Amino acid sequence: MNLSDFLRFFNLHLLFLILYFIGTGQSKVEVPRPRGVSLSRTGLYDPEKNFTCLDGSKSIPFNQVNDDYCDCQDGSDEPGTSACYGGTFHCPNAEYRPENIPSYRVNDGVCDCCDGTDEYSGVITCVDNCLEVGRAAREEAARIAELYKAGKQLRADLAQEGQKLKNEKQQRLNELKKTKEEADKVKAEREELKKLAEAAESKALEYYNQLEEEQNAKRAELEAAQDKEQAVQFFKRLDTNGDSYLTLEEVLARKCFDKNRDGQVTEDEAKYFLNSEEQLDLEGYLEKAWPQMKPYRVLDSDMDIPPKVENEPTEEAPTEADDLAPLEGEEEEEEEEDEDTDDQEQVQQEEPPKPQVEYDEATKKLIELASQARTAFTESENDVRQINTQITDIERSLTQDFGREEEFASLEGQCFEYEDHEYTYKLCPFDKTLQVPKSGSMEITLGRWSEWDGPEENKYSSMLYTNGQNCWNGPNRTTKVKVSCGIENKVTSVAEPNRCEYAFEFETPAACKESSQQAENDLHDEL
Ligand code: MAN
Predict the structure, then answer these.
(1) In this structure, which topology does domain 413-526 adopt according to CATH?
(2) Quick check: CB of 444 below 6 Å from ligand 1?
(3) Where are the domains positioned within the chain?
(4) DSSP secondary structure string, 113-148?
(5) How many A from CA of 500 to the centre of ligand 1?
């Protein structure tokens, strides 16, 4: 090959090379990004090709993309219009953070994207305020990052304190278990002593109980005899003709049998007292009439009329008081009408005293010892009960989830308040939430500790309190507490979004962790 051949050959190759590079350069020309499509999906919308719906369901000519007619079931052919139900519009928001909005918001007359790209129909003009929005968001993110930075140390302190508390509780539990063993022993011993002392006491009292029974029986006998005596005397008084029969006429003649107090004794009333008999002899009277006559006899204004039986030695006796009260509400009348009140009092004084058993010294001592043994046993029972309660409390506290590093532990046992114009609300973590009316009425439990109920990746961001006081005509009250990072423990807001469902917001340094990482990430994303 001579030089000119070589040059021709070389130029030809150079030409091909140049054409090749021009060619490849042309194939790298950027495909225009259709409206509403995110950068990452731009390649899927190639104007040189048919468009395949993103769900792969069908292919359509590219000029049908964003033609305001919905071809694809998934709405992917109309990313920049509101033609498809369920579609998504992408706001580039160049000066801030890209965002996806539902495509029905496109051209709806409301600026949704901060860059205003969702409104292009001319109905409304949106200004691009992404720069300001971004700045505010960055400032907020920076503030939060600062807060987390400050809270981080506090949280670490709380975690340390939580660990310490846990160890102390464990130690206390061990001690209590030992104390309980001792207390159980003491209780068993005292129970034995009590049994012995009570056995001795019962034995000693056996004699006295018998004595008392006998005295009671005697007293009952005496009372029965007295009652009978009264009954007999009253019979004699009523039996005015002295024929040993109590007749209807004789009952009708006594004002005291005016049961309804209408001024006359009717036949019905008389029959009531005679138990529907025409007449009764003494035996019949004692059995059938005396029980109902007895309360009325003290009202007998004819008491001064002497019974027919002459020289009756116990003439005054029928007026003896008995324990049965006259008719209710008639005491005053009774006092006015009854002329024999003094006699009654006299008789009352003469009543035999109630039997009183006087124990001998040895028995007294045994009673005292048994009583001491009972008191000592009750005390040890209370001790054991108290220890058990403490053990249960500590065991429950030890199984409580106070965060990955026990950072929430120190909140247990504390309460934090929040006031609005009507109520003071209280959050007592791991226990309950309360609503205390400022009017002074009773406080209402809004829920009892149930569980952490934040999302899986941030479980400790929300507490749930359930089973509070019943809502009138509704369910039991419940409270959700949103927990976020703050440099002090503080309830920052309380609302009742639905009746008897309460929403608290609570800040605590204990929450200055996972989210702090999140906040830093957010900040980086945005920058
Ligand atoms: C009380 C309060 C309110 C609640 C009503 C429901 O007034 O506990 O928060 O909404 O009861 O009846």
Answers:
(1) Cation-dependent Mannose-6-phosphate Receptor; Chain A (2.70.130)
(2) yes
(3) 1-30, 31-128, 168-308+362-405, 413-526
(4) STT-TT--SSSS-----HHHHHHHHHHHHHHHHHHH
(5) 6
Tell me how far apart the alpha carbons of residues 486 and 108 are, in angstroms, rounded to a whole number.
40
Whether 434 lines ligand 1, by a CB cut-off of 6 Å, is no
Say if residue 12 is exposed, middle or buried (CB neighbours under 10 Å; 0-12, 13-18, 19+). Answer: exposed
Q: Quick check: 433 and 502 in contact, CB under 8 A?
A: yes
> Which of 422, 434, 471, 494 is the pocket-test mutation for ligand 1 (most atoms within 8 Å of CB)?
471
Phi, psi of 51 (to 5 degrees): -95, 130
Mean pLDDT in runs of 10 for the chain (527 residues)? 51 47 47 87 93 95 95 94 93 93 95 96 94 91 90 95 97 97 97 97 92 92 95 95 95 92 93 95 96 87 45 36 37 40 40 63 95 97 97 96 97 97 97 96 97 96 98 95 96 97 98 61 41
d(Cα 124, Cα 106) in Å, to the nearest integer? 11
